[in-house]
Amino acid sequence: MKETGKIAVLGDGDSVEIFKAAGADVFTADNEMNALHTLKKLVNEKYAIVFVTENIAVMLEKQIEQLKTQPYPVVIPIPSANGTNGFGMAGISRDVEKAVGVDIFK
Amino acid sequence: MTRLAVNPTRMELRRLKARLKTAERGHKLLKDKSDEMVRRFLSYVKENKRLREETETDLAEAMKSFTLAKAVMSRTELAETLCMPARKASVETSMENVMGVEVPVVQIAFDGAASGADALPYALFSAASDLDTAIEKINELMEKLLRLAQVEKTCNMLAEEIEKNRRRVNALEYVMIPQLTETIKYIVMKLDENERGSIVRLMKVKSMMQSEDV
After folding, report:
1. Where are the domains of chain B?
2. Domains in chain A, start-ordered, CATH in brackets?
3. What mean pLDDT comes out for the span A72-84?
4. Any idea which fold B10-208 has?
5. I need a labelling partner for A73 at 20 to 30 A (CA). Which of A39, B84, B199, B212 fits?
6. What is the pLDDT of residue A20?
7. Best mutation target, B47, B53, B59, B88, to test chain A (most A CBs within 10 A)
């Protein structure tokens, strides 16, 4: 049951436009309302993979948490042009804590 | 522990014993499942961490090159170079079953050239060289990013399932099983007590009859 899915990148500024060259669809958002709206649209349009830059991901934490329970879409935080703010790594720590009880990688 | 509200009868006892057996078996199975899931989860999460560390630095670098390119090119030029991508990326998605959890599997599929000058969606002289570097880097990174996406999602879903499973195990271990054992004990005691009562009654009757005969 293989299906073909699309890749989207949701970012805060022009720096994510680089993903256009790699063949992904690029969307930008500058505030929380905007970002939320775009994320919802991407989910509805059945994008398989959505990369979200960390500074946007911080605003959408609740929605991303909700999407974690279903296989698709895969929403993954990536660092923005200014580098990482640790949101992605914090996600891993949270998973470990959930599964094992303590963060054993600290 | 509270015991269940049941009648202390032999039939009820038999029923509860069967339930206790099932509960204990289920508890053991779920506990084994939990152990195995944690084992798999740990190997996935290690890979997740490794991939994330690798991609985070690389991606930041690629974006930095891009920002540099942006600085030397005009907005329209830049938009022009990027408006016709050399290749379209899509993913083939399917599902995999990891310990009863349906996790996504993604496989990237490009149409168009993967590397070299063909991968650049513009003429070489029309853009800054930093843009070439950035695009080359991002093309290399794409596969790793998708691998990261798959592994990270698997970790998310496994963690969720492990948590759920642990709740089930605990409910069986600390609620169901103690309740059942307690109730079984209560019924056994009640039945024994009834039996003792009837024996005493019989003995009493017998002795009364004997004293009447004399």
Report:
1. 10-208
2. 6-100 (3.40.50.10580)
3. 76
4. Helix Hairpins (1.10.287)
5. B84
6. 73
7. B59
